[in-house]
Backbone:
């Protein structure tokens, strides 16, 4: 029953968003054709109950305009819309996979190891403004850091891992930590006052990945063949992406910091992408390629 309800919520949200605004009569016509209706219209009381549940689960408000008799979904800013889309996609995927247990041996998923143990606790810390205490085991050191205390500012997922960014209470610096490298996570009983000058959107705006402190943002230009360009259009590397199309190639422009994460992304694309600008990024790519090539050259 819970699985069916989730599917119904997602269907209602998707349908109303697709139409922009819709009257109850048209919504009922579409509902009758959906796999959830059993050929029956959606009762008014049930619809109201679904509206309340959708607002509680997804923080999505289905509003009613008495002048036009239409329902619509109130829109937020771009970031809020992105979070909502992510939640809906996750819910829709979960709902679809929950009905596929009979073919599970033919479905292969990517694991997100850091989402299981501590994500709920960290979300609570964000919501309630409570510091997070934990032991941290970075890959760059053999010994853990004990007694880390962080006032959380935001969460970000990157390459199947969740990361927490916040103010380290000990050294008073903003740092980023991977949730899957945390141990013994607890939350403060007391709350802290968030820094009113910290703007998470501005902090991550010019960054690809989870390294946020690699100098000033640069104007980046990448040349791709027409085939690779299709992949960039379907899944942009960054929100600043814009494209100039030529006869048999495209140039994609970005505003980005030249972080190790972005360098690795460019290198992973191989000969399908050529860095046009800036010169610093070209030098970083060629240097890394030379270092890699040297590993395969024969030694006397």
Residues:
């Amino acid at each position: 029953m819970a699985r069916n309800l989730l599917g119904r919520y997602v269907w209602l949200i998707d349908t109303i968003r697709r139409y922009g605004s819709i009257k109850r009569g048209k919504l009922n016509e579409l509902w009758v054709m959906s796999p959830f209706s059993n050929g029956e219209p959606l009762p008014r009381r049930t619809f109201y109950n679904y509206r309340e549940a959708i607002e509680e689960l997804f923080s999505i408000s289905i509003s009613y305009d008495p002048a036009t008799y239409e329902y619509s979904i109130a829109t937020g800013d771009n970031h809020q819309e992105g979070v909502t889309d992510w939640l809906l996609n996750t819910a829709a995927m979960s709902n679809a996979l929950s009905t596929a247990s009979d073919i599970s041996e033919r479905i292969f998923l990517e694991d997100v190891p850091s989402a299981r143990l501590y994500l709920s606790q960290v979300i609570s810390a964000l919501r309630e403004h409570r510091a997070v205490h934990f032991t941290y085991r970075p890959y760059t050191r053999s010994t853990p850091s004990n007694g880390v205390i962080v006032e959380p500012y935001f969460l970000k997922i990157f390459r199947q891992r969740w990361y927490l960014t916040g103010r380290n209470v000990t050294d008073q610096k903003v740092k980023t930590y991977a949730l899957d490298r945390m141990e013994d996570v607890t939350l403060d009983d007391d709350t802290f006052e968030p820094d009113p000058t910290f703007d998470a959107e501005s902090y991550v705006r010019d960054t690809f990945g989870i390294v946020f402190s690699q100098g000033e943002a640069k104007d980046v230009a990448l040349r791709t063949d027409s085939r690779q360009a299709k992949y960039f259009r379907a899944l942009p590397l960054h929100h600043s992406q814009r494209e100039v199309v030529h006869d048999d190639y495209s140039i994609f422009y970005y505003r980005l910091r030249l972080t190790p994460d972005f360098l690795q992304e460019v290198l992973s694309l191989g000969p399908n992408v050529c860095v046009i600008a800036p010169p610093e990024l070209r030098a970083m790519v060629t240097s890394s390629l030379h270092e890699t090539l040297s590993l395969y050259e024969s030694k006397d």
Remarks:
- The mean pLDDT is 86.
- The chain has nine helices and twelve strands.
